[in-house]
User: Fold Uridylate-specific endoribonuclease from Rhinopithecus bieti.
Amino acid sequence: MRACIPLVLAVLCGLAWAEDHKESEPLPQPEEETEEALASNLYSAPTSCQGRCYEAFDKHHQCHCNARCQEFGNCCKDFESLCSDHEGFSHSSDAITKEEIQSISEKIYRADTNKAQKEDIILNSQNCISPSETRDQRDRCPKPLFTYVNEKLFSKPTYAAFINLLNNYQRATGHGEHFSAQELAEQDAFLREIMKTAVMKELYSFLHHQNRYGSEQEFTDDLKNMWFGLYSRGNEEGDSSGFEHVFSGEVKKGKVTGFHNWIRFYLEEKEGLVDYYSHIYDGPWDSYPDVLAMQFNWDGYYKEVGSAFIGSSPEFEFALYSLCFIARPGKVCQLSLGGYPLAIRTYTWDKSTYGNGKKYIATAYIVSSA
Assistant:
């Protein structure tokens, strides 16, 4: 699969960053997603690294945000604050390096034996548009995105456990989430199933070696809190969580926020609730998982640019987002998948905490790919 236009994936789910930060507050919170802001500003604000971290060098830009701009002394002034690759909350004595993150991400990529094979998914990506057209809300694709998915994938334990979680949420923010005993058990079942996989065992082994977790149970308990712990994006207490936002999707102020999962997209499209409009990026991978940045309507609400891995297992996405949140909370996290670079950006939820001052995941998304 190839990019339909020569652009960095900052226009992907990275648009969730602009979506998340349009409303000005002293410490802007990523629940205020305004994807259109980045779509319109990405190319009109060449003096900033907003949405441009680690993009390819372009001689036409006034300043640069590529990996070697510091070497040549031509970085934009906000490169360090927006694109810095420091250790986040780590102490320097046990900081996780960029090279270590790239190495473990490759191991996770190779370990994803539950991913879709080429014959399991037939995509019909159809019309590719430019970033300037994403605001049009025009349906340029008469056919669904997914022509075929081998639903035998969904009988695999981690897929089945993941799908069980998707109907446990109210998509509108401002309405408190109240989980039944069965729904809480489904969260535990999902974590239990993914922790059996080679993907999550690779991640735990890495983080244990990095002195982040003393036991697998400690790691699992922390994952449950950071992903499933409730906080408030709207007026109602406990109306959102990292899992709901990233994987299931939400609607706030008349717009789709989050919703970055291909399984969720396929199931909603199959039910006639998602209408695929177009895409602006199709990733370089020639097998699954791949990445697609698209426009769509979710039962009456528009998503200007939403990205998703395509064909990945639930544990693969969960592992990469968790890795980046733990190693680079609130920062750019540079990965390597099958030899191709990919960057993910996470944001912490700063209005409430769990445990000993730990922060929940507010959002996680892809911001760049060379």
Notes: The chain has twelve helices and ten strands.
